[in-house]
Write a structure and sequence with these properties.
- The chain has 373 residues and is an alpha/beta fold.
- It has 2 domains: 2-166 and 344-360, Rossmann fold, CATH 3.40.50.2000; 169-341, Rossmann fold (3-Layer(aba) Sandwich).
- The protein has 15 helices and 13 strands.
- It has helices at 12-23, 39-46, 63-76, 87-99, 118-133, 143-152, 169-174, 204-215, 232-236, 247-251, 272-279, 292-295, 310-321, 324-341, 344-360, and strands at residues 2-5, 32-35, 52-54, 82-85, 104-108, 137-140, 160-162, 190-195, 221-227, 241-245, 260-263, 284-287, 302-305.
- Strands 3-2-1-4-5-6-7 form a 7-stranded parallel beta sheet, with helices on both faces. It has a 6-stranded parallel beta sheet with strand order 10-9-8-11-12-13, sandwiched between helices.
- The radius of gyration is 21 Å and the shape is globular.
- The termini are close together.
- 46% of the residues are buried.
């Protein structure tokens, strides 16, 4: 197996790959991982006996050289299946796998193209439709995303699979807990948590403004943001906002220091952080958009609010801060839902089945055919 990532920083793709590395049957699968160099991700992989192969699939400037490098890598590791994550990896990896006559599997961790120009949108969708034709299986991380992918033609009927993201509840419980004092928060502070990359699609600015509204009635409220990205310094300038490095979202359990999890994101594939929050017993307030709709059972495990509605978001947050009992009930219901529907072992088992089917579809190359990896 070759896992090829567009991004190796905090996010769903790297987390999923780490879970696959940790839980795929070692006697059946040997995994190589490649993507842009990242020291933290490299250390995480090295503890599991895997070296991160640096390849800049997040850039298009050296397209022919990068494509040749990926094709050479596929041949060097004798991969029987290439699994790509993200746009750049999906382009280079699937093209290179096609050239090397190796089946490709691609996971969409969200389908994001709305910010492109009209011409850019048409070009992107045309390319993804062609790539879908040379992909053995397109994996979508939620039912709503699968519906969108089929509607757009970036996945083909009979050649797509829904494999929802899962989390390792035991691994989450084993992470060290950051005390509120270590995070610069007081014992009486009502803490709202959000773990996500600092990208415009996450609508952190709107979230910070909604929290400022909440603070008018709840002066002890604070928004704890964990992430990395170009908006980090600007977000840190908001009142009632505490920004911490995104690495804390990987290596510690921040949810234990929070009273409520919140997200104002405009679109998701199937986000891991709300699942981790639910597994930690937190209610969730989130925007009523694809991805969140697959995670939050509105009124039972949390509240869904209209997109880009600052007033509705602040009202929902305040309503749960005012009702500790309801928060606890929602948190318990959320934990039960995660344990039933969003386990890492289910995700890994279903992904392994896709790998087996893809490997079986590879044309035989006689006695010298490579072993499954």
């Amino acid at each position: 197996m070759l896992e090829l990532l567009t991004a190796t920083t905090l996010g769903g793709g790297p987390r999923q790959v780490l879970d696959l590395v940790r839980h795929l049957p070692a006697e059946e699968f040997r995994v190589s991982v490649a993507g842009p160099p990242d020291s933290r991700f490299a250390v995480d992989l090295r503890t599991r006996g895997i070296e991160l192969v640096g390849v800049a699939v997040d850039r298009l400037g050296a397209f022919p050289l990068t494509l040749r490098a990926v094709e050479r890598l596929i041949r060097d590791v004798r991969a029987d299946v290439v699994h790509t994550h993200g746009k750049g990896a999906g382009l280079y990896g699937r093209l290179a796998a096609w050239l090397a006559a190796v089946p490709a599997v691609h996971t969409f961790h969200g389908i994001h193209y709305e910010s492109y120009s009209r011409v850019g949108q048409r070009g992107y969708l045309a390319l993804e439709r062609w790539l879908a034709g040379v992909t053995h299986t397109v994996i979508n991380v939620s039912r709503t995303q699968d519906d969108e992918a089929l509607r757009l033609g970036v996945a083909q009927p009979g050649r797509s699979a829904v494999i929802v993201n899962g989390i390792d509840v035991d691994e989450l419980a084993a992470r060290p807990v950051k005390a509120r004092a270590e995070l610069g928060l007081g014992a009486e502070t009502q803490v709202l948590g959000c773990v996500a990359r600092f990208d415009p699609i996450k609508r952190h600015d709107l979230l910070a403004r909604a929290v400022a509204r909440v603070a008018q009635r709840h002066p002890n409220v604070a928004l704890l943001l964990a992430g990395e990205g170009p908006e980090k310094d600007r977000l840190a300038g908001h009142a009632n906002v505490r920004v911490v490095p995104g690495a804390l979202g990987w290596t510690t359990n921040l949810y234990a220091s929070c009273d409520l999890y919140v997200s104002a994101s405009a679109k998701e594939g199937l986000p891991l952080a709300p699942l981790e929050a639910m597994a930690s017993g937190l209610a969730v307030v989130a925007t009523n958009v694809p991805g969140h709709q697959d995670v939050v059972d509105d009124g039972t495990t949390g509240l869904l609010v209209p997109l880009d509605d600052e007033t509705a978001l602040s009202t929902a947050i305040a309503s749960l801060l005012d009702d500790r009992q309801r928060r606890r009930q929602m948190g318990q219901a959320g934990r039960e839902r995660v344990l039933k529907e969003f386990t890492v072992r289910s995700m890994v088992a279903k992904t392994a089945d896709v790998y087996r089917a893809a490997a079986a579809a590879r044309p035989e190359r006689g006695a010298s055919a490579p072993r499954r990896r």
